[in-house]
# Entry
Amino acid sequence: MSRLHVGYVRKAIEDRFTGLIDMTDKARAQESKQQEAFLSRGLAALAVQIEHPCADRVAALSVFDGEDDRGLDSIAVEVRSPQPRICLVQAKWSEQGKGGFGESEVDRMFRGLSMMLDRQYSKFNSRFQSFVPDIERAYESGTPKITLVLALLRTAPLVPGIRDLIEEKRAEFNQVEEMVDYKVLDLRDFHRAILGDAAAPKIDTKVRLDGFIQESTPYKALYGTMTAPDLADLYGEHRRGLFARNIRDNLDLTDVNIKIRNTLLEQPEHFWYFSNGITMLCETIRPIGKSVPGKVGDFQLTGVSVVNGAQTVSAIHRAYTANPDSAQFGRVMVRLISLEDCPPGFGDQVTTTTNTQNPIEERDFKSLDQVQVQLRDDFALMLHLSYVIKRGEALPEQDHGCSMMEAAEALAATSPNAELAAAAKRDQNLAGLWEDDTYQEIFGSSPNAYRVWRSVQLLRAVRARLKELRDGLLWRADAAAFHGDLLVTHIVYRSLNTRSIEDPDFYWPNELKKVPELVRDALAWSLSAIDQEYGKSSHIIAAVRNTERIERVVRAALRGLDSGNDAPPLGDDYQVTEVETRGRQVNAVTTLIATGRIANGAVLEYRPYSKPERRDMAEWLAADATRSLASWSNDNGRYPLQWHADGEWYSPSGLAKEMRKQASGVTSSVQGTLRWFVPGEGSLDDLALAARLDQGLNVEDEPAAD
# Structure
């Protein structure tokens, strides 16, 4: 049967994506290889549609499989939801329905994820570059939830060794919080997806309700308790098809989902009390045998769909799979609503209304605390400023006040306890700061309004300076400047004169004047400390969110600042300079032509190198694919690149300069050899250096390259 279903998926890919998926890089490949690559890319596009419903053309454009895909084949970025999400797909096509996935694929996939998190965007191919602005927006909207999707045309589960390896690598990214997860889409998932809505409502199943009660007026419904094992089995059998009518599906990496899972594993006996329950719509509900209300009843359901509680069902399945001995004791309240006598559209009303209730958060309770009320009054009476304490209230202009959220973040950053800065970075809603003990440590019993407002001003000044610096930073340094805002604020605060910060007569602007220089030095010392303590392959996010790591980084950075020594210079791979030369730079064009390292006619890709370039050029490059391409010639001297956009010949730097000017009107000297890449091999700069090393030539103190 699997070969038959493979044929269905193949036809769906051909019908949807023929002519839409970019196959130009495979133009010279054998026809069989072209077809295999197309089907693999089509599978990656189909996986994106499953995870993020979109039009065929959008799904096709999500594919960047090919040279320099870094073990990833397609991407979808969602930045409009409260929690930004990034979906990364690696797809494996198999005519036999046995798509393989081994250790090498796992390693490449996670290395690619590391590069993306470290903002090494130029390591990826040109098709990936158009997604960089959305990725950066996702980073800046809060901690993104990242899902690695293994799109495998197979029915067999992953072998235990591979699954264990994935879990091990996943754990490395989740040392501080559950940021990265993975899921496997197999032949069954793709088959359901291509059947579409027609297949969705046809799930028929049997369920058992303990202590069930029946409602008959005006419509038939049942409610009772189901066990975690029964719900886990239900999801295991029908999987995502259970959520066909749910407006959100199961968001596997939401904080709510993680808390549900942890409750079931750690306190299964409390799960019934802590859970809001599950609502299922059914076409019909029929009792099996004798069913007495208040007792145990078995029921046959047709056309069943979970419309509220998808996260609960998914979390139960994951928890039960991970630890059945503990999770088996969990129970949950379930409502079954029959649609057989309901008016048209009633099911949609149930789906919408059960999913649009705003949850109450811990910070909402804190807004009622007398401490916050007093701060609001003190801001108004003593500072003539606004202090907003309730969620949903209009925020004041920056010069006119702040919110309780911003105050909590600023006080966490300026606390003597650096661990509070780490706690604040773990959740975009600052969930860790509202826990009673932490909240008390931050605000105290009678916070001083001057201290609160001045801490907010400091945090704003630090962030403004970091934003300025980021335009000249690359990769890990850029990530450190973004994710390390509270870390840097903490270090800067401890370097200022703050003894009189609560004194109304203290002239705080004198201290704020020191911020720009201190921010630069604090960032440099912090990044140096992270690299030395944990290595250049460590994750910046872990360093700023892990309580132990942030303490070590703070101590090292403060020692550096107090030493009186100049801050350690950022390496050339961490910053962009005006002319962008380096001591070990060679004359790349001359070297590459002399060694014949690049074949005549080879097509090179342009990849933006710095944040300002990405900001200014992304849309311009995406508007015309020829703008990112140039052909190489070993016979044209200093001008080896023929730009596909106009057919003219340029030097690498000259062309990069011309492109920036056309895209944004900015004229600046740039090193083109860092921006032009031979796909799958590296930049011109990389290739020239490797060529000289291969020949045993000196690479020290060479003249700057074009």
Q: What stands out?
A: The CA atoms of residues 421 and 487 lie 6 Å apart. The two ends are 59 Å apart (CA to CA). The longest helix spans residues 449-470. Residues 197-201, 248-255, 578-586, 699-705 have pLDDT under 50 and may be disordered.
